[in-house]
């Protein structure tokens, strides 16, 4: 009997010790989880609740039902904003294959001034976004911009890059592509350094050319990094606002035809003070990003190689 009692006591003590040990991970995770709930989950829930409300000029709130959702379906600015956002995102995604090529060239053995090139390509990432946008606004200026001056040398009259709807979107997209290159090059350069040199040596022994080595060795083994960049770049593209705002300005006559979904949200929430309708637009942005990310994760099995 005494043996059974001592055994039960030891078992209970061990169980309590494991229970206390199991609480420590929760203690360390609690600040992070509280931050996620307060700054991520609660704003999404509050936005969802606001989408069924109508707000007055003095902050008074009333239940609006599905009125804001019906307004979204009949708003002619929404399809154009979705199209503008999709075009911008597609153009910015073109920076990933460009970054793959640049990172591969920078990773070549015997290349001189490699550190200088890395710093040069990383400069846009440490520059103030608004300052960068203002500089590019001057570059694309119709009267004295560098781009139109270069076009005039070959007899081409440059367009009004910033005030013409489609040209303005193209100009903003070019700057967005340029600004996305530094992060992509850094991540891809790190991925390239993780590829064993033995694979390239084996490919050379098999008679593979440099182009064949790039397509059969480099790209497949870089596919996890490319997949990560695709997700991040697309999410950033769908959230286009600050670059568009700084380059074009609110009084630009082309803004109505060039605005992104996030700019439309800003306009409705802070200029028109229609927070209920702005919440619906925010949910639309969340839905688009979620669907695109889900599709990418479903399609990664076909082209991403983890081994």
Explain what the structure shows:
A two-stranded antiparallel ribbon has the order 1-2. It is an all-alpha fold and 307 residues long. The model has no long low-confidence stretch (mean pLDDT 86). Helices cover 77% and strands 2% of the residues. Helix 2 (67-74) packs across helix 14 (275-303) and helix 4 (95-106) packs parallel to helix 8.
Would you kindly provide a brief summary of this structure?
This protein is 77% helix and 2% strand. The protein contains 14 helices and two strands.
Summarize the biggest pleated sheet: 2 strands, antiparallel
Could you tell me the number of beta strands?
2
Name the average pLDDT. Answer: 86
Show unreliable segments: none
Classify the beta-strand content into a percent band: under 5%
Shape label? globular
Distance between the termini: 58 Å
**Strand order across the largest sheet:** 1-2
Based on CA atoms alone, the radius of gyration comes out at 27 Å
The run of helices and strands is HEEHHHHHHHHHHHHH
Structural class: mainly alpha
Helix content: over 70%
> Helical region count?
14
């Amino acid at each position: 009997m005494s043996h059974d009692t001592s055994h039960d006591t030891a078992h209970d003590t061990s169980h309590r010790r494991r229970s206390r040990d199991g609480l420590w991970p929760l203690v360390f995770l609690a600040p992070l989880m509280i931050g996620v709930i307060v700054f991520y989950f609660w704003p999404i829930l509050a936005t969802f609740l606001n989408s069924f409300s109508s707000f007055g000029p003095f902050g008074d709130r009333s239940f609006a039902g599905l009125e804001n959702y019906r307004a979204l379906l009949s708003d002619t600015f929404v399809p154009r904003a979705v199209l503008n956002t999709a075009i911008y995102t597609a153009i910015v995604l073109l920076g990933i294959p460009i970054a793959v090529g640049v990172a591969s060239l920078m990773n070549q053995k015997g290349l001189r001034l490699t550190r200088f090139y890395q710093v040069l390509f990383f400069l846009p990432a440490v520059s103030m976004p608004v300052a960068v946008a203002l500089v590019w606004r001057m570059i694309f200026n119709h009267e004295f911009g560098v781009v139109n001056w270069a076009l005039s040398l070959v007899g081409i009259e440059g367009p009004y890059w910033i005030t013409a709807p489609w040209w303005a979107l193209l100009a903003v997209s070019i700057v967005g592509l340029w600004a996305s290159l530094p992060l992509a090059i850094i991540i891809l350069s790190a991925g390239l350094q993780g590829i064993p040199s033995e694979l390239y040596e084996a490919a050379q022994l098999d008679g593979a050319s440099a182009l064949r080595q790039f397509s059969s060795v480099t790209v497949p083994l870089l596919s996890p990094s490319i997949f990560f960049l695709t997700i991040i770049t697309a999410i950033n593209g769908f959230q286009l606002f600050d670059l568009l705002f700084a380059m074009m300005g609110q009084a630009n006559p082309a803004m109505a035809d060039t605005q992104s979904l996030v700019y439309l949200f800003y306009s409705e929430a802070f200029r028109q003070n229609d927070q209920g309708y702005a919440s619906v637009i925010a949910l639309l942005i969340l839905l688009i990003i979620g669907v695109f990310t889900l599709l990418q994760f479903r399609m990664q099995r076909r082209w991403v190689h983890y081994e």
